[in-house]
Amino acid sequence: MPNLASTLKQEITRLARKEIRAHLKTLRKSATQHRSEIAALKREAAQLKAALARLGKGMGRTAAKSAESEDGGAKPRFSVRSVVAQRNQRAKLPLWQSMAWGMLYGSLFSFAFTLASGKSFAFEPTWPYVLSLLYLAVLGSIVAFAGYLTLLERIGAARAGYIGVMTPVVALVISAFFEGFRWHALTFAGIAVTVLGNVVILRSRR
After folding, report:
1. DSSP state letter for 179
2. Which of 170, 164, 167 has the alpha carbon at shortest distance from 152?
3. Is the pTM of this model over 0.70?
4. Averaged pLDDT, 98-117
5. Sign of dihedral through CA atoms 161, 164, 169, 171?
6. CA 201, CA 74: separation in Å to the nearest integer?
7. pLDDT at 74 over 60
8. Do 99 and 149 form a contact (C-beta atoms < 8 A)?
9. Which of 130, 132, 127, 125 is nearest to 175 (CA)?
10. Top-confidence residue, 98 or 23
11. Integer Cα distance of 109 and 104 in angstroms
12. What SS3 class is residue 76?
């Protein structure tokens, strides 16, 4: 009996070792295969990273050449609004949809700021108030921003920015019609200087 028990124990030990060796061999093969796959993935990732770096450099050079050709090599400081609008246009975002979302966000921000500051909302049901509100909403916001963004797309941010110089002139004309503004010699001189400055700057940029 002792010999039989010892024999069984040895046989079980042998079979167990054989089974363990088989499993270890399978695991080694699997680990080797996985290491090869990981190495291949690392090589592909390095190649993609290098390709992205080359693409980024190429796009940077193209953007720099485009800006230089558009602005005559100058480097003006654009407003954040113009830069964001130009980025949206380069991303091929629809004009009217993006403008509508921008106005919605602006309205919500103004609404939240008014509530936070403790101010109340008021509306006067009179024709002057309603007409002025419609003018600000339609002409002063929708039409004005659509025109500016279209101009920005056609001639670039540098030249489109000079529209801000002409805004006071338009405001004076509207004020003369609706508010009784009186024209003076200095008013005409200021308008002449403004128009002349715009003409000189825009011609020099061509």
Report:
1. S
2. 164
3. no
4. 88
5. positive
6. 12
7. no
8. yes
9. 132
10. 98
11. 9
12. coil
Which residues are CB-contacts of 86 (< 8 A; sequence separation ≥ 6)? 78, 152, 156, 157
Apex 54 CA angle, 49 and 55, nearest 5 = 95
Go through 129-157 and write b for each residue having 16 or more CB atoms within 10 A of its CB, e for each that does not.
eeeeeeeeeeeeeeeebeebbeebbeebb
Q: In whole angstroms, what is the distance from residue 151 CA to residue 149 CA?
A: 5
- Average model confidence (pLDDT) across the chain: 76
Token duo for residue 86: 């130009």
pLDDT score, position 76: 44
Instruction: Tell me the two tokens of residue 52.
Output: 């992205």
Each as own residue / partner, the long-range contacts of residues 80-87 (CB below 8 Å, 24 or more positions apart, any chain) are 82/152, 82/157, 82/160, 82/161, 83/157, 85/149, 85/152, 85/157, 86/152, 86/156, 86/157
- Residue 125 tokens, joined: 């049901």
Nearest by Cα to 183 from 172, 174, 170: 172
Q: What is the pLDDT of residues 175-185, one digit of tens each?
A: 888 888 888 88
- Residue 174 tokens, joined: 């509207």
Burial 49-85 (b: 16+ CB within 10 A, else e): eeeeeeeeeeeeeeeeeebeeebeeeeeebeeebeeb
